[in-house]
Amino acid sequence: MSWTNELYKVYELAVDPEFAKKGGRPMLLPVAHSIAKANIEICITEDGELVDGGINTVDNSDEETIVPDTGKAKTGLYPAPYPLNESLRYIAGDLNLFIPTDLKDNTKSHSDYIELLSDWK
């Protein structure tokens, strides 16, 4: 077998989260993916309907989740949103009503998120 086939087999094993865990984290992530801490999981149908009992808390031992991303780093003052899996500061337009005033205002994050969702639509 050629070295490229062997390399491909190693890659496939390394991206398998059940096979290649080290300290609870995959050793190699799939392309355009990152790790996020998930506190809740929301399950919806293909039509966007909430599945019965579709909002669940995530067990602490399983909160690190491999999620797709835009490839743009989540750094800087206003990192780019990603509509398929995003944190509360992007999704909740009224978050500023419920957080202490010394925390960062989420108005820009939320408006960027809504704009991106509109573009997808």
What is this entry, summarized?
The chain is an alpha+beta fold and 121 residues long.
Shape: elongated
Radius of gyration: 18 Å
- As a percent range, the share of strand residues is 15-25%
Distance between the termini: 46 Å
User: Could you tell me the number of beta strands?
Assistant: 6
Helix content: 25-40%
Largest sheet: 2 strands, antiparallel
Outline the structure in words:
The structure is a single chain. This protein is an alpha+beta fold and 121 residues long. Helix content is 26%, strand content 22%. It has helices at residues 3-15, 88-91, 107-120; strands at 21-22, 25-26, 33-37, 40-44, 50-57, 64-68.
Write the SSE topology.
Layout: H1 3-15, E1 21-22, E2 25-26, E3 33-37, E4 40-44, E5 50-57, E6 64-68, H2 88-91, H3 107-120
What descriptive keywords fit this protein?
two-stranded antiparallel sheet; elongated; 121 residues
